[in-house]
From TrEMBL:
Protein name from the UniProt record: GRAM domain containing 4
Region of interest called Disordered, as start-end residue ranges on this chain: 1-26, 104-130
BP GO terms, sorted: apoptotic process; negative regulation of toll-like receptor 9 signaling pathway
CDD domains assigned to the protein according to its UniProt record, in alphabetical order: PH-GRAM_GRAMDC4
Residues covered by the GRAM domain: 422-502
Keyword Nucleotide-binding on entry: no
Native source species: Gasterosteus aculeatus aculeatus (three-spined stickleback)
């Protein structure tokens, strides 16, 4: 390193430009430039040789290579400067050409307002300000409208399964009472409308008729109805605030409210459940009848009734296309008033007129429900089957020879019917010719209620009911195949009365049954809980009338 310093000192010889003493800053810059010019290539070679010798002597190759690289970079400063000067000159030439082109274009075009040059620092601050303002705007929008935006977010619907309450007599009774209390305003409103139409109070109905017809004539029918709705709501508000306001065309009858009993016996609870179930059954039955009639009206189940509706709809459509709506509203309002106050009153007062000329009433009553349609189809099927039964096969003596040995006439015409417990005639101790009719080959499942017996086991029996040509047979399901004590056989000739009967609504088949009276029983026997009660009644009654109309009574077939 000492040699390297000595070489450096030898290289820094005084130059020709250092005659004046440094003074001002301009003179110092001139002296520095003169020193740079005095540096020659020989001096660099001396430095380079001294450095190489020292590197070999100290064996520090790594440090010397780094110093060598630095020296080379210093030597290439001039070449780099020259290249930079060339690039600068080229860029200045290009800028000069671009400026010339822009000047020529600007001279041809109208002058533009001066544009301020933006520094990169200003661009960065502007970007930051924009980001801050956008974040503030988003925050303000979310605070104001975030609740409404969350409402429009799509989410999968969660299916919640409500827990069903167990059956309770108390809860069932309370629900029926709640339903009755909730429907009371609607029933009172309908009852008041019916009283207006029936002219229950002549003065009230006359005043209402005059006011309505005057409003309909001047086109104020709909505003009048809306005003009445507002008036009714205002009266309800005053009643809710404690005012005693009560107005009704028909006087309300207050039903005595019995306090609910807490301690009920088992029989009282059972009777309470039966009463509530009967009311619910009747209510649901009426609702089902209305819905089924509407469905059958629109499904052309009864074409005569649906055809009238179809023609009325076409006439209404053509009228709406031809006449203006103002005239149609006027006509509809007048017709509604006349129909409600006059026509309905005449029809209700004169039932014969209603049966002849009240088309909506006739159509509604003629519409069948689904059970009635089922009864009709079963009746037609049973009539067809009864018609085929009258045609019996004729077996001549010539055909008897073709019958193989061991086969009787009964087996040739039709094999004997058998039940689950054995042959039919063996169970009921009848002749082999007595077989169930084609309508009841499998029988009708029911329960026999013998009201002459007092024991519960003898009072009600479950089984199957059959009808033959001469007998009505009941096979008890609890009887054994070896004994027929619990089975019941009734001669059709001995029946004094046969009627439809309804036991309990909660039983199968809605509690429908058949009541049969005989001389041997004090109270009629009831075959209840029959699902196909109407079919069984028609078959039994047809066979009974067939036997009773014959001149010769049937012979005794009991063994």
């Amino acid at each position: 390193m000492a040699g390297f310093q000595e070489g450096a000192k030898a290289a820094t010889l005084p130059s020709r430009c250092s005659t004046s003493v440094p003074g001002t800053g301009r003179q110092q810059r001139r002296m520095a430039l003169c020193k740079l010019e005095d540096f020659t290539f020989d001096g660099f070679e001396l430095l380079y040789s001294g450095a190489v010798d020292k590197m070999k002597s100290h064996k520090s190759n790594l440090n010397l290579k780094e110093e060598l690289r630095k020296l080379r970079e210093e030597t290439n400063v001039d070449s780099l400067r020259q290249e930079l000067d060339r690039e600068r000159s080229k860029r200045m030439d290009l800028e000069q050409k671009m400026n010339d082109v822009l000047k020529t274009r600007l001279e041809d075009s109208p002058p533009l307002p001066p544009r301020k040059q933006q520094s990169p620092s200003n661009n960065g601050t502007e970007k930051r300000q924009k980001e801050v303002w956008s974040s503030r705007l988003q925050k303000w929008v979310y605070e104001r409208f975030g609740v409404y935006i969350e409402d429009f977010r799509f989410q999968p619907e969660e299916s919640t399964v409500e827990a069903e309450e167990p059956l309770s007599a108390k809860r069932l009774t309370e629900n029926m009472r709640r339903l009755k209390r909730g429907a009371r305003p609607v029933t009172n409103f309908l009852r008041n409308l019916s009283a207006l139409s029936n002219w229950h109070s002549v003065y009230t109905s006359a005043i209402a008729f005059i006011i309505y017809m005057n409003a309909a004539w001047h086109g104020w029918a709909i505003p009048m109805l809306l005003f009445l709705a507002i008036l009714r709501l205002s009266l309800n508000y005053l009643i809710a605030r404690g005012w005693r306001i009560q107005w009704s065309i028909v006087p309300e009858v207050s039903e005595p409210s019995e306090p609910p009993k807490e301690d009920l016996t088992v029989s009282e609870k059972f009777q309470l459940v039966l009463d509530v179930a009967q009311k619910a059954q009747n209510l649901f039955g009426k609702m089902a009848d209305v819905l089924e009639k509407i469905k059958n009206l629109f499904m052309w189940v009864q074409p005569e009734s649906t055809r009238k509706l179809y023609i009325c709809l076409w006439m209404a459509f053509i009228t709406s296309c031809v006449l203006p709506y103002k005239l149609m509203g006027f006509m509809m309002g007048l017709y509604a008033g006349i129909k409600f106050f006059i026509i309905d009153f005449l029809f209700k007062s004169c039932p014969k007129l209603r049966d002849k000329y009240d088309t909506p009433f006739i159509v509604w009553n003629s519409l069948p429900t689904d059970p009635q349609l089922k009864e009709r189809t079963n009746a037609t099927v049973s009539r067809r089957l009864s018609g085929t039964e009258k045609v019996q096969p004729v077996v001549s003596r010539s055909n008897l020879a073709t019958i193989p040995c061991g086969v009787s006439r009964e087996e040739e015409t039709g094999r004997s019917h058998s039940t689950k417990k054995g042959a039919f005639h063996e169970i009921f101790n009848l002749l082999e010719s007595e077989r169930p009719l084609a309508v009841c080959e499998n029988g009708w499942r029911c329960c026999l209620i013998n009201r002459d017996r007092k024991m519960p086991t003898d009072y009600i029996r479950n089984g199957v009911l059959y009808v033959t040509e001469n007998y009505l047979c009941f096979e008890s399901s609890s009887s054994r195949s070896s004994s027929s004590k619990k089975n019941k056989v009734i001669k059709l000739v001995d029946i004094t009365d046969i009627q439809k009967y309804k036991v309990l609504s909660v039983l199968p088949g809605s509690g429908m049954g058949i009541s049969i009276a005989t001389p041997s029983t004090q109270k009629p026997l009831v075959f209840g809980a029959m699902i196909h009660r109407d079919e069984a009644f028609e078959a039994i009654f047809t066979q009974y009338m067939k036997i009773m109309t014959t001149t010769k009574p049937p012979a005794s077939a009991e063994l």
